[in-house]
Each structure stands twice: as C-alpha cells, then as structure tokens.
Amino acid sequence: RSGSKHATTPADNYYLARRRTLQVVVSSLLTEAGFESAEKAAVETLTEMLQSYISEIGRSAKSYCEHTARTQPTLSDIVVTLVEMGFNVELLPAYAKRSQRMVITAPPVTNQPVTPKALTAGQNKPHPSHIPSHFPEFPDPHTYIKTPTYREPVSDYQVLREKAASQRRDVERALTRFMAKTGETQSLFKDDVSTFPLIAARPFTVPYLTALLPSELEMQQMEETDSSEQDEQTDTDNLPLHMGTDDSGPEKENSSVLQQNTSLSGSRNGEENVIDNPYLRPVKKPKIRRKK
Amino acid sequence: AVPVSAAVAAAPPEGAMSNGVYMPPSAANGDVKPVVSSTPLVDFLLQLEDYTPTIPDAVTGYYLNRAGFEASDPRIIRLISLAAQKFISDIANDALQHCKMKGTASGSSRNKSKDKKYTLTMEDLAPALAEYGINVKKPHYFT
C-alpha cells in the first residue's frame, strides 16, 4: 500500500478512502493549530498515529469491557482506556468547547461495489440459515452448474433405418466410383466415356473354378476337423443314404458314378471325407463308349 | 451508612467512607479534595448529541470495528473521535511551540512577530513526539 500502481480491490478502495479522510482531518487540525503548510512526511506520520490511536482505543476498550464479562462497551470502559493511555479526561470538555469554531470537513466516502444487473445471470442461491446476512452473497449459479449442451441421439426406428440405408447406399456408391476411377473401366455409351463407367470385368482363365473350389471359410473348417477320423466311417455310411435321398431320380450311370465316388472318397484321406457336397467331389469322367 | 462501611472495610477506624470515596486520614484535613467518583463524562456525553467532531462518525466507526469495538451508542464514537482529535492537536501545538522557539530563539525580529507562515516539518515534530515517548526517525534521503 506504499503508493504502488497495482489495481486496487474494492476493499482497498474502502480502506484508502478512509485513510484519505484521516489525512484531511489531520490537515484541518494542523491548520487550526496555526500551521500554514506541512511536510508530507509529517502529515503521514500524524495520520498513522491517529489511525493507530483510534484502533488502540477500540481494542483496549473492548478488552476492558470483556474483562468484566460484558460484550457492549460503555462509557466507563472508554474512560478507563483513555486514562490508561495517558489522556487527561478532564480536559476533554474544554477542548470540545474550544474547537467549536472548527469547520466540519470531509464527509465519508461510501463505496459499495454493486455488480450491474446486466452482468448477473440467474438466481443466486439464498443463504442457508447458519450464515449471517451481512456476508457476501453466493456467486452466480452459472459458475458452478454445468449443463451438457449435446442433443439426445435420435432413437426413432424409422429414422434410424432410413439413415442406415442411405449410409449404405452412399458407401456403395463411393466404393464403386473409387474402383472405377482407379481401375479399368468400360463404358456403356460409345462416345461418352466418363458418365457411366462400368468397372471392367476381369475374365478368368477358368471361369468355373471359383464355383467349384471351396471358399476360404470352408477351407478353414476343413483344416480344423482334419484329425477327426471317427467321422470317416459315419460319413461313408451316410453318403449312400444321402445319395438315395438327394438324387431321387438319377440315371443308372450317375448312380454308379456316385457310388464309385463314395468308394473312392472313402479310400481317400479323411480330409476329403468331410465334404458332404456331391458337387465337390472329384469328377469322374463317364465311360466313353466306343463305337465298335 | 457509616457503621456499615466501617464493618465492611478493613480501613483504620478513623477512615470514613462518605459519598463512596475512601478518604485516607491525611486527607481529612482538607489538603486534598477528593474527587467524587462518578463517571466524569456523563454530562459531557449528553452535550455530544448535537456536536459533530471533525472526524466523521463513519471513519471512526470503521477503525473501531476493525479493532473489534462495536459501538451501540453513536455518542461513544464521537467521544472517541474527539479524544483522538485532541491527541493530535496537542502534538501539533507542541510542534508549533518548537517551531516558534526555533524561529525567535535568536531574537532576530523583534518589531514584527514571526511570520505567520509556519510549516510543520519533521524536525519540529520529532522532539514534540519525543515528549510523548514516540520516537520517529526519518532518513534524510533514501535511494
């Protein structure tokens, strides 16, 4: 507080206003005594003394009052305090009458900081009963209450289905376009190449190979059940039964071929016995009848 | 009330209690007038109701509150501010005496009195405060 340039809080302003008032009072007293001017240091000294004198009277009077088990200080407490501080109490009325002609100066500064209405948001929480009323209020509720600002996700079935369908359509479209742009394309129209590109089909050398070979998933399943040889006999027993049920009206050649297939499959490894699909068995060429 | 007080107090039998003031035997001669021990400033307090001291009530009340003193009666506050005023003006008068003494010590001007412009300086204030037991030491200059 020694004249620094820092921003002062309202409490500091409060304190400084009163301090200035004391300085004015000291100056008026000096003027009344006969001084025309005074050194700054002297005025500061006397101001400090005045402030500490008042504080000391207050503290001492309070102590005397509490010493006699009371809480409200009375005139006697103050008289005793003044006597203890070396103040001649009897001269006080005379002094009061003498200084009647002194001009009354310096009204106090009332500096109550009030937040403007525009800045307050919401209702402050009222004081609980155990807090006295002269304490400051609670802060605005927005300083300690947080409400999330996201919206609830939509859970309507129809909207979700529509969303899913449109998303899948977009994904498919994007993917095909990507493949068209990065791979070979064929066009529907002769002259307009870029409008409707079709992804060029890659012809396989053996087109029916993918239809005959098992998929990756089935290959894995085959490897997993490789060691089960117990199923071998059951499979061979089941196979002719399946033949009978599946192929209701086969030709004799086919049935013979199939039965030879089952025997052949029985002689093979157990790996291939698991395959139940008749179309996946190795092809047995039909006997070619040579014309004699 | 005399026999009662004589029974209660362990005073010498000649000591009389009158008016609530214990008078030692030596005082019975009339050399020392005992002060009637009522609270001295009661009457003065009544006069204070319409008198406003130089220090505003709010300022004095502020400093008293900081010390823990809550005054129920505003006249009490005025009394205290008056006492503080008197304290300061006593010191100011002593400093003025010092200033005047320094001015006319050498007897320079007799015809006209010392010029009316007195300036309170620390050199005058320091001895005035020393009489009250307050020592102030100010450096002549500081960096």
Summary tags:
heterodimer, A: 292 residues, mainly alpha, Histone, subunit A, two-stranded antiparallel sheet, 3 strands, 50% helix, 3% strand, B: 143 residues, 5 helices, extended, disordered N terminus, transcription regulation (chain B), RNA polymerase II general transcription initiation factor activity (chain B)
Could you provide a short overview of the structure?
Chain B: Keywords: Nucleus, Transcription, Transcription regulation. The complex is a heterodimer of chains A (about 290) and B (about 140). Chain A is mainly α and about 290 residues long.
Architecture of the domain at 8-95 in chain A in CATH? Orthogonal Bundle
Oligomer: heterodimer
Low-confidence spans of chain B: 1-18
β-strand number of chain A: 3
Shape of chain B: extended
The number of helical runs of chain A is: 10
Give me the Rg of chain B, rounded.
24 Å
Considering DSSP H and I runs of 4 or more, what fraction of the residues of chain A is helical? 40-55%
Walk across the major sheet of chain A and give the strand order: 2-3
Q: Average pLDDT across residues of chain B?
A: 72
CATH superfamily of the domain at 8-95 in chain A: Histone, subunit A
Query: Distance N terminus to C terminus of chain A?
Result: 131 Å
Keywords (chain A): Cytoplasm, Developmental protein, Differentiation, Nucleus, Transcription, Transcription regulation
InterPro entries (chain A): BTP, Histone-fold, TAF8, TFIID_su8_C
Domain Bromodomain associated (chain A): 14-91
Biased composition (Basic residues) (chain A): 282-292
